[in-house]
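Form P-L/3: holo structure prediction, ligand WQD.
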Amino acid sequence: MRVLLTGGAGYIGSHTLLKLLRQGHEALVLDNFSNSSPRALGRVKQLAQADFEVREGSICDAERLDQVFAEFRPEAVIHFAGLKAVGESNEKPLHYYAQNVSGSITLLAAMQKHDCRQMVFSSSATVYGDAAYLPYDEAHPLQPTNPYGRTKLFIEEIIRDWAASWPDASAVLLRYFNPVGADPSGQIGEDPQAIPNNLVPYIAQVAVGRLPFLSIFGGDYDTRDGTGERDYIHVEDLAAAHLAAVSFGHSQTGCEAINIGTGHGTTVLELLRAFERASGRKVPHKIVAERAGDVARSFASVTKARTLLGWQAERNLDDMCHSTWNWQSRNPDGYDA
Ligand code: WQD
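OUTPUT (holo model):
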């Protein structure tokens, strides 16, 4: 199939692109490189030993989208492009709504105009907000607690309405839990453009010597060891879920939201210990105050992914930590080296 990846140079996008190419799909990456590096695409080309199209541009640019759709004639879109920093979204909500929500509307209009009926959307477990019950299943109330999470929810609802208005349309909304890890080659991985907000890239930068120590946000949660618990999912498993969603959507119409996680939680301290084992490095840390907006526990019900997509996570915490360390130790400064 011909697949357009918006934001395809990013962390999840580049890993998904690699799998698509290895499965023989044709791909075009549209990326404005605001939070990604073109170098990642060069690495993917080498790893896949296959070529693909790249266009620099924004999903907010209707003319650019028109050009891309007319030239490439995608049969499916995997929509990764979007701003994703929770803290920044509190400071700049209008910027997040303009880029994420308006940009997605422009993209959906281009899809309809060019008769591209299949969408796989990069959504997030953040749409659930505080847990009314656990594990989070897809019927859990949707009550995001920050503008970033609300952009994901609004886009989900817009896609749902788009699919309902077009009988041939097909949409799969993948609600990611916590993506971590890297391709086993160590050639592509997560490369935050500033000090990492997320736990695993932060730990990796402490282990490689770029940051002095980890601050653990909260040590008195109602969890096994008092630190926050999350459902970490290996980026390779997550990439495989996108391919499963593309093939599922190819033979369906309508709109389905599906959790992508492992179905169980890991605490910050458990992950830190696993990373120390994987890297052979100590990770200095200290427990500080809880971070505003954090939930104590988050992990997914993954029944729907298994029954609808025939997908389940295969990699464990050690795989996540070994592959992250392999990437970070080979690329201490990410793609900028
Ligand atoms: C994980 C755990 C922190 C950093 C966020 C977004 C979510 C999604 C994934 C995009 C928590 C603790 C973290 C640190 C720490 N992003 N932590 N010290 O908050 O579960 O989810 O990223 O879709 O939308 O909300 O991930 O990695 O920030 O935190 O102690 O320096 O690590 O308190 O318990 P989170 P995270």
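COMMENT: The chain has eleven helices and 13 strands.
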